[in-house]
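Sequence only, no structure available. Ideas?
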Amino acid sequence: MSRLSTLLGQRLRRDWLQLTLWIFGTLALAFAGLSGAANTYGTEQERTALLATVMANPVILLFRGLPSGPGEQAFIVFLLMPFLVMMPAFMSTFLAVRHTRGDEEAGRLEPVAATTAGRAVPTVATIVHGVLANVVLGVLVAAAFLAGGSPAEGSWLAGFTAACGGLTYLGVALLAAQLMRTSRGANSLAVWVLVVTYFIAGIGNALGTPSDDLTHMQSSWLTWLSPFGWAENTRAFDENLWWPAFLCLAAFVVLAGVALALQTVRDLGASIVPERRGRAAARATLSTPTALVTRLATGSTIGWMAGAFFAGALSTSLGAVVNEMGSDNPAVADMLKALSAEADLEQAVIVVFFTMVGLLAACAGVQTVARARQEEAHGTAEPVLATPVQRVRWLADYVVVGFIAIVLTCAAAFVGAWAGAANLDNGALTGDAFVAAWGQVIAASVFLVLTALVFAIAPRWTIPLGWTLVTAAIVFGLFGPLLGLPEWVTNLSPFSVAPVPSGSDVDLRGMWWLVLAVGVGAAASLTLMRRRELASAG
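Reply:
I predicted one. Tokens follow.
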């Protein structure tokens, strides 16, 4: 027990800041949702009209929860539940991989395993650590609903569901850490499982059966293949079903048990999925450091491009849906126009979807620069810098490749938008999509250079702070108008002040400030990198 408590204390000291940001970020989302949704959709008539529109156009359910009535709290859960599960899911994923495969890859697990703690106790400590983090998050989410005057049972069910959802993906990440050879591979596998199950739940909801009064949706069988679907089917503040949340808890127990079992049958440093054998000699295309960075970033960039293409296609193919939404519910029209400089509704939806594209592009850029930190921490940057390659050139390669990843991600979204507009025979939407795409290139580039600047100043904070900045910006930019946040708060996000189409013109908004920030950030990061010493992991 003393060994377990010691390792648990070490994890708490190591993670206290990251967990604080994730937990209070989720709590802030719950508080903002309670106040913002109540103000934006203040009457039951508005909520009923919106739900009727959702039933008629179920593709909207890809990005929302499961409708469970027009009641104020039930409607808020419909809007927020997927994200109240997604936040602890990401938190738990990174926590689990960091303390299992990450420590093993960095060589920190071997000295611990050589003590009387053995190999199992560190993993058990990670499990307890993840459980405690999710319990605290769930209690605070429940407290947020209670503080807003919501009924007690629904409030506790919402918090319990958020915690159980996070625990499910804690189990997924623990298993991924056993399957994959590197922490990068484990994180990628766990995040892809999260994204795929999110869309499975959305598709399952879209294929469901609406009630006669168009206020409830009975999800299809596909939804039950996803932990997000289980969480949404708890229907907090409506039916208050607890047993679907216990499915999340059961999945965690099974996944964590399998992960512990696999750890006992594999060698330290090995993995269940064998590492791919490399070539005896590198191709000529890997003869430069730029080509090496491009090779490292190619796989993830393709993944971000695929998601952007899908978002772009939806942005122009939902034109008829948008006009119906605006006519049925003026509150929806006002919310959409707030994101698009008072443009028409079709342009507004393009802006909303391309804000999501900007998020994906920012993730592509941040992930590319984060690889520089991973290469430095793992010691693989030293052989490159031992050659005539200067460290400024080395970082510049990551910044340039990250910018190319951003451009390609937004270009993929534009191609998707063009394909969607072609089916509607509406060329004007293609032009609007082009404007929104290059606007998001500028916005996403801000996060690229900010991450590079953090890498040059405080390298150990590169990964957590880079992703935290993106998460905070998307909450302000994408959900700010929905949650009723003040305009000045929403405008803190580069996504919110990027150039957008406005009628037949272009609203440049904060373009010049964004361009200035990108230029200054890039120059500062490269200048500071000139004299910085390499920082190892730890």
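The longest strand covers residues 500-502.
Hope that gets you unstuck.
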